Amino acid sequence: MRSPFPPPPERSAELRRRFAAEARSELPDLSALCLLLGAVADGTLDEAGIDAAQVELDELAGRLPFRPGGPRAWAVALRDLLGEELGFHGSPGDYQRLGSSLLHEVLRRRRGLPILLSVVWLEVARRAGAHVYGVALPGHFVVGFGTAGEQVLADPFDGGRVLTGADAELLVAGAAGVPLDPGMLRPADPLDVVLRVLNNVRAWAAARPERSDVALWGVDLSLLLPSHPARLRYERAQLLVQRGEFLAGAAELDAYAEVVAPVDEATAEQVRRQARVARAKLN
């Protein structure tokens, strides 16, 4: 299957407006944000497709046992339904697909990256009434059930395998080469989850220069989040120049230089020089 391509400009603009509004709402909806992101990525995902994905999450939640018990019982119930019965899981090859970062594609294929599979677990469990949250371990996203004192972790990428403390330590050591710190086990904010999804999208595009369109919308959506790294403005400027939009890229470079100047004038001047070079390419 070919990598998805974005929708027409008018549709894309409307989706971005809705994405920004949802991200700035009092209680941002993780599934809504991920599906809007998916629609920006994939022009074939229309309103009916977005609604169908939400309905599927509702139906999956309805297939769970009614209040199965404590945190471990919830984790086991999700593993049994999503991992074992329905086959949601991941593999190394899924890192090569843009669709592995798109919720509607993960629901369709039942395959994806750890963070998108975790979104499925989170949204199904939340609808069923579980105390559930994402846990952004370094290099590997998992799902947590219960409070800190009784926390149980599950790994959706591994079919929902319930993790012991030693398992979590090995995951972190293997992915990041650092010891597990209790601070790593804190619940992840939904907007941080979305930003991490977009980071994965940008990383996928960075390895494929011919898909600078994907890198650009990945940056654009990241900039619509209430909190984001300032350096994304610089990344956006570089992408515009790379795509031959020299004046727009130069303007972004100048704007970023103004942000940086109060704390690092030398870097700001270097960025201004890059803006001049970009404008000179029009001659």
TrEMBL record:
Residues 56-199 form the Protein SirB1 N-terminal domain. Pfam families: TPR_9, Transglut_core2. It comes from the Bacteria. Belongs to the UPF0162 family. PANTHER family: F-BOX ONLY PROTEIN 21, SI:DKEY-261L7.2. This is Tetratricopeptide repeat protein.
